[in-house]
Amino acid sequence: AGVVALLSVLARWALAEFGNRGMAVVLGLTGLMDVDAAVLTLAGLPQGTIAAGAAGVTLAIPVIANTLIKGGITIGIAGWRRGLAASLPLFASSAASIAFLVLYHL
Question: I need a surface site. Which of 35, 45, 84, 105 has the fewest CB within 10 A?
Fold first, then answer.
């Protein structure tokens, strides 16, 4: 609960100081540790603070970051050969998500 509260304060500060991109950076860094905290932080913002489309893109960033971290952890635990085979779907879905964001939203 403390992490979510801290992230909520940081996200609101970043939103006020840097706009949607600032909040996206904070939530992206959050996703390296915990996607749920990023979701709760975004959900806790007052309605109308950020447009629905921008919220979706902003939330995609921590989800992608977390997915890539999990793929790396899998390789670290299982070894390069087996870990890569297990992580390939994670990396492929992340690449597809990044491509979608770049082509349609950024």
Answer: 105
Give the pLDDT score at 34: 81
What is the pLDDT at residue 24?
82
CA–CA gap between residue 66 and residue 21 (Å, rounded): 18
What would the two tokens of residue 11 be? 């996200």
- The CB density around residue 82, as the number of other CB atoms within 10 Å, is 12
Long-range contacts of 92-98 (CB under 8 A, 24+ apart): 93/67, 94/64, 94/67, 94/68, 97/60, 97/63, 97/64, 98/64
What global pTM score does this model have?
0.78
The single-letter code of the amino acid at 30 is T
